[in-house]
Amino acid sequence: MYVSRLGLTDFRSYPEALVEFEPGAATLIGPNGQGKTNLVEAIGYVATLGSHRVATDAPLVRAGAERSVVRCEVQRDGRATLVEIEITAGKANRARINRSPVPRPREVLGTLRTVLFAPEDLALVKGDPHDRRHFLDQLLIARTPRYHGVKADYDRVLKQRNALLKSAGFARGGADFRTLDVWDEHLANHGAELLAGRLEAVEALRPLVDKAYDVLSGGGGPTALDYKSSLGPDAPMVPDRDMLSAALLNDLARMRPQELDRGISLVGPHRDELALSIGTLPAKGYASHGESWSLALALRIASHDLLTADGGEPVLILDDVFAELDASRRDRLAHLCAPREQVLITAAVIADVPEELQGARYDVAAGQVTRVR
Exposed, middle or buried, 305 (CB in 10 Å: 0-12/13-18/19+)? Predict the structure, then answer.
C-alpha cells in the first residue's frame, strides 16, 4: 500500500497543492513553518479522520475559506482508489470513494492505513494516561475500522451517563435510578467491546515493542506493556466480551455511591492505563530522554509491524523525527524503516536524514512543493 497522489484545496496553509509519490522513501525538506507537516497531516487525516496535531477540524480549514478538501490516491494490490474528504468546520464532513459519495465519512476508514510518528509522540511515554489510551484506540481502528463506531458509541454513552449522575446526585433523596440502570447496561456493553479490543492489541504488541526497542536502543530493555484496568482486582483481564460486560456491571453497581457523590463515571475503559516499563522500572519518570524516544518509536514501529501482519502494509510517516535523535539512533531507525513499502519523512535539512532513507526529495517552501530528484 502506498500513496501515489495527494491533492489539497484550502487545507491548512495550502490554497492548492498536488504532490505525486512513488513507493519507497520520500523526504519533504524545508525550514520550519513552510508546510511540510501539513502534507503528512493531510495523509494521516485520510487514514484516521483526525489530526495528530489538533483535536478539532477547524484549524485544518485555511483561514478565510469555508471548507477544505483532501484528495488522496491510494495504490493497493495493483489497484488505485481515490479518497476525497471535504472538511467543513462546525458541520458534518463529507467523503467520496472513487467519485461516489459514501453515507458517512468513516466508510473510508481502512482504504488507507498509516503509522505516523511525530515529536508529540513523546507523550506516549511521558504524558498522561489519555495519550496511551488514544494510541491504543487509534491502533484498534486501524486494525478493525468498526471500532471507530464502538469508540464513538462508548463516548456518547459515557457523556449521557455522566450528565445523569450529576442530576441524580443533586436529587439523590428522591431520584429514580431505573434510567441509570439502563445506561449502566449500555456502558457495560460498549465498554466490554472496547476493553476486549484493547487487551487483544496489547497482547499482540508486547513482543513487537520489545523487539523494536532492542534494535533502536542498541540492546536495551526488556520492555513491558501492562494494561491497568479500572475494574476491581478480581475482574477477568481476558478479551471475553460477556465476562468483561458482567464485570463492568458489577463494578458500576459497587461504585454507584461514589459516582453519585462526584457526578462522574469512575469505572470503564476511559479510566484505564497502559503502563510502560523498561527493565524493572516504569518508563514514565525513570526513562532518560533517549530511552523515551526509543520507546515511543518502538510503539509506532511495533504498530506498523502488527498492521502489516494483519494484511496490507501501512504507509510509515516520520514527521520531524531525525533532528531529535543521536547518530546511532538515526542509523538504527533507518535500518528498521528502509524495507517498508513507503516511508514519508519530513526534515528541516537533508543532512538530518540518513542516506539510506533519503529517496525521492521534495523541497517545500512558501506553500510550494517541488520535486528535485
Answer: buried
What is the reported pTM? Answer: 0.92
Residues ≥6 apart with Cβ < 8 Å to 357? 25, 27, 334, 337, 338, 343, 345
Region of 55 please: left (phi>0), alpha (psi -120 to 50) or beta. Answer: alpha
pLDDT tens digits, one per residue of 293-309: 999 999 999 999 999 99
Bridge partners for 29 per DSSP? 347, 363
Q: Per-residue pLDDT tens for 108-144?
A: 999 999 999 998 999 999 999 999 999 999 999 999 9
**What's the CA gap between 297 and 284, in Å, rounded?**
15
**AA letter at 67:** R
Is-cis flag, bond preceding 31, omega within 30?
no
Domains by residue range for the chain, with CATH: 1-113+313-373 (3.40.50.300)
20-24 long-range CB contacts below 8 Å, 24 or more apart? 20/371, 21/342, 21/344, 21/360, 22/360, 23/75, 23/341, 23/342, 24/341, 24/342, 24/343, 24/359, 24/360
CA angle 327, 287, 329 (to 5 degrees): 15
Give the C-alpha separation, 291 to 275, whole Å: 15
